[in-house]
Amino acid sequence: MISSSRIKSVDFYRKIPRDLTEASLSGAGLSIIAALSMMFLFGMELSNYLTVSTSTSVIVDKSSDGDFLRIDFNIRL
């Protein structure tokens, strides 16, 4: 099993120089939660960035007299 002193060494949030500090279990827990959260968010953003999505829309403006402009599409397969 992992010892308490090894978990305490993960504490990222020390405010005083390392030789004058004492790592705490709560600081290590906060550090582990923060690191896991950052990895999760980075993974989600990377996944979203690599996902290909296409969207097509056609919007026709009204003409100056308020009528819509008629456009016909002839599509053959």
Average pLDDT works out at 80
Query: What summary fits the major beta sheet?
Result: none
- Spans where pLDDT lies below 50 across 5 or more residues: none
N→C terminal distance: 65 Å
Task: State the shape.
Answer: rod-shaped
Helix content: 40-55%
Secondary structure: number of strands: 0
GO cellular component, one term: endoplasmic reticulum
Domain Endoplasmic reticulum vesicle transporter N-terminal: 7-76
Organism: Rubroshorea leprosula
Keywords: Membrane, Transmembrane, Transmembrane helix
Provide a descriptive summary of the structure in words:
InterPro entries: Erv (IPR045888), Erv_N (IPR039542). It holds the Pfam family ERGIC_N. This is Endoplasmic reticulum vesicle transporter N-terminal domain-containing protein. Keywords: Membrane, Transmembrane, Transmembrane helix. It comes from Rubroshorea leprosula. The structure is a single chain. The protein is built from two helices and no strands. It starts with a helix and ends in a 27-residue tail after the last helix. It has one domain. Helices cover 40% and strands 0% of the residues. The mean pLDDT is 80. The radius of gyration is 29 Å and the shape is rod-shaped. By secondary structure, it is an all-alpha fold.
